[in-house]
């Protein structure tokens, strides 16, 4: 029975690490794309507005393009703020690092001891639940901020093994 729990816990932690790593990487790329994109769009708009020529047609054309670029930059910045991508990305990164640390502790325990007790497995599982629960807490806090009330956390009763 204990060996099945060890295998289950190892698979659970490993799969969760892979999932969080994948999602963290997607969030990081999206955050950087929006940051760099808004910076480049703003720089291009500034350059277009700064070029002075005697050609009136170019001046109208460049102002219109700069206006469109400014609008695009505003949308990118608004998305960053509205979605709060940086905070969400960093939250995922913290959770991932904690899961990696838990996995290292678990692997060390497996190597250091000939057998792991169910109590030790329970401690590792409880820590896993605490770490992954932070993701739910993040969304509950975000929801409560939107609704203007306190965060609601549902705790299921736990049966001790």
Share in β-strands:
under 5%
What is the helix content? over 70%
Tell me the quaternary state.
Answer: single chain
The DSSP helix count reads 4
Number of strands: 0
3D shape: elongated
- Biggest sheet overview: none
Regions with little confidence, pLDDT below 50 for 5+ residues? none
Order of helices and strands: HHHH
If you average the pLDDT, what whole number results?
A: 88
Estimate nothing, just give the exact number of structural domains. 1
Rg measurement, Å: 25 Å
Classify the secondary structure makeup into a structural class.
Answer: mainly alpha
> What gap, in angstroms, lies between the N and C termini?
12 Å
Could you describe the 3D structure shown?
The chain has 161 residues and is an all-alpha fold. It has one domain (2-147). The protein has 4 helices and no strands. The protein has helices at residues 2-50, 56-83, 85-112, 118-147. The chain is elongated. The two termini are 12 Å apart. The mean pLDDT is 88.
Strand and helix layout:
Layout: H1 2-50, H2 56-83, H3 85-112, H4 118-147
Task: Explain briefly what this protein structure is.
With 161 residues, the chain is an all-alpha fold.
Keywords:
161 residues; mainly alpha
């Amino acid at each position: 029975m204990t060996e099945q729990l060890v295998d289950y816990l190892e698979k659970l932690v490993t799969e969760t690490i892979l999932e969080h790593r994948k999602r963290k990487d997607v969030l990081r790329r999206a955050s950087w794309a929006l940051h760099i994109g808004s910076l480049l769009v703003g720089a291009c708009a500034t350059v277009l507005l700064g070029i002075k020529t005697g050609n009136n047609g170019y001046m109208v054309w460049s102002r219109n393009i700069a206006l469109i670029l400014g609008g695009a930059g505003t949308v990118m910045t608004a998305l960053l703020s509205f979605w709060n991508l940086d905070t969400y990305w960093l939250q995922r990164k913290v959770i991932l690092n904690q899961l990696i640390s838990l996995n290292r502790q678990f692997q060390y325990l497996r190597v250091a001891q000939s057998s792991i007790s169910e109590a030790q497995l329970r401690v590792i599982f409880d820590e896993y639940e605490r770490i992954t629960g932070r993701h739910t807490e993040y969304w509950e806090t975000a929801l409560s901020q939107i609704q203007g009330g306190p965060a609601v956390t549902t705790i299921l009763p736990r049966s001790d093994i």
